[in-house]
Amino acid sequence: MGSPVFSLYLACPDCDGLYTAPELPEGDRVVCPRCQAHLVTRRADFVSRATALVLAAALFFVLANLFPFMTLKADYRESDMLLAGSVTGLEQQGFPILTGMVGMFMLVAPALVIGALLYLLLPLRNGRRLRGALHVCRAMEEARRWNMIEVYLLGVLVSLLKLEKLATLTLGVSFWAFVGLIVCLAFAVSIVDPAELWKKLEEAQP
Amino acid sequence: MNFDPLTAAARGLARCHSCGQTGEVEAGHCSVCAAPLHLRKPASLQRTVALTLGATLLYFPANLLPVLRIESSIKGGQENTILSGVVRFWQDGDYPVALIIFTASVVIPILKVLAIIALCLAARSGRFPQAMTRLYRMTEYIGRWSMVDVFVVAILVGVVQLGSVMRIEPGGGALAFASVVILTMLAARSFDPRLIWDAAAARGHIVTTDIDPELAGASNAASPASHA
After folding, report:
1. What is the DSSP string of A121-160?
2. E strand intervals along A82-127
3. Touching check for B209 and chain A: CB below 8 Å?
4. C-alpha span between B184 and B82 (Å, rounded)
5. How many angstroms separate the CA atoms of A1 and B121, rounded?
6. Considering only CB atoms, which chain A residues are within 8 Å of B166?
7. Inter-chain touch A18–B97, beta carbons under 8 Å
8. What is the block-wise mean pLDDT of chain A (206 residues), using blocks of 10 residues?
9. In angstroms, what separates the C-alpha of B12 from chain A's closest C-alpha?
10. Phi-psi category of B36—alpha, beta or left, where left has phi over 0 and alpha has psi -120 to 50?
11. Cβ contact (<8 Å) for B162 and A70?
């Protein structure tokens, strides 16, 4: 290909400033001198570090869905809610669109991010990329924007305070797995710089 | 890292919104990830204004309709809108919760719409490009947190299934409010901050050579722009 344009230049997404692409030592972060937008981060060995975190996130995701998320006690009655209960509850009350939205933001989007990252990162460790990796990577970028598990966590805390006077709420095993999921996924996503991931995918053997 | 006095657009280049690599716009597609390549986001201002308008209109039912209906055999039925929920928390002395909900559901959506209006005006006038770009990044980041009240409704509905003792149902306001949040997120996303810099350059508010040559031309190691 000679010297493709993308390896020569770095353009700022926010102000369109143009820079000749620097040879970056690992661990360096480049910020646009004109508008302070983040341009690129080179992290040492990001593939294996991110893989480990995504695997942990996947495990936490499964655990978060298996056990009771919260238990409500009132007047000698007890009821358990699974993580998915906040989606199925809306469905039972006849709110299909709201069900879809909430399910998308707290279950489907994080699952897609985890699945897509595993699909991309696991083969990359051996310098390979699987069929459709380019589409998967784009889907992952999209799912990332709609993943709101950290906002959901704030919602859980508010709900605890809201029901405090009416009933006793206790947090189940799945709640703690969910916290683990948020932490691992946030770290994994922050380690994977899209530009660097694409560069690696471009170099990988199909 | 060397600074090019021209913008990417002036050289016919653009950063791919999907993979972050720089590509030639003439090719139509990014050479790395095959995503469509545009100099600027297509119809950016029109889309942003249309989505913001939609969000503003839906903001009324979102606040007027109840988000939550509680039916309890002891206390009877009660309906909460977003604001009446905040007031109830405040009266009960739950100040932190009242503040969280008020900030996420009332303050942030209003500030977000105002910020988008300011950004659209700046894309015309080219005033304060640096501050406006910072405002853009904040607007994009903060939008998702408004969804917290919708999640609270979803959690309460899911957890409270005590049959005869108490029942919680979602209200139409929750759907309207979730739509407001989604529309403002899409509006912020369709805005292209590079339009502000285009306008600023066209009106002479910034001259590209104004940039500190030390910052722009310095080598990696010395440049404050890159650090370990």
Report:
1. HHHHTTTB--TTHHHHHHHHHHHHHH--HHHHHHHHHHHH
2. none
3. no
4. 18
5. 43
6. 74, 166-167
7. no
8. 62 87 77 86 88 97 95 79 90 91 96 96 91 89 93 93 80 95 95 86 83
9. 11
10. beta
11. no
Using the beta-carbon criterion (under 8 Å), do B2 and A20 form an inter-chain contact? yes
Cβ within 8 Å, pair B158-A98: no
Say how many residues make up chain B. Answer: 228
Contact between chains at A9 and B145 (C-beta distance less than 8 A): no
User: How far is B155 from B222, CA to CA, in rounded Å?
Assistant: 52
- Mean pLDDT of all residues belonging to chain B: 84
pTM for this model (two decimals): 0.88
User: Cα angle vertex A78, ends A76, A80, to 5°?
Assistant: 175
Euclidean distance between CA atoms B71 and A56, whole angstroms: 41
First to last CA, chain A: 17
For the residues B62-91, what does the mean pLDDT come to? 86
Instruction: Taking each helix axis as running N to C, give the angle between helix A133-146 and helix A194-203, from 0 to 180 degrees, rounded to the nearest 10.
Output: 170
Q: Is A87 at the interface with chain B, CB within 8 A? A: yes
ipTM for the complex shown: 0.90
E-state strands within A35-150? 38-41, 70-74, 77-81
Output the pLDDT for position A167: 77
Report residue B56's pLDDT band, with 50, 70 and 90 as the boundaries. very high
Surface-to-core class of residue A122, CB atoms within 10 Å of its CB (0-12 exposed, 13-18 middle, 19+ buried) = middle
Contacts of A25 in chain B (CB under 8 A): 220, 228
Phi, psi (rounded to 5 degrees) for A27: 95, -5
The confidence score (pLDDT) of residue B165 equals 66
At B196, the pLDDT band (50, 70, 90 cuts) reads very high
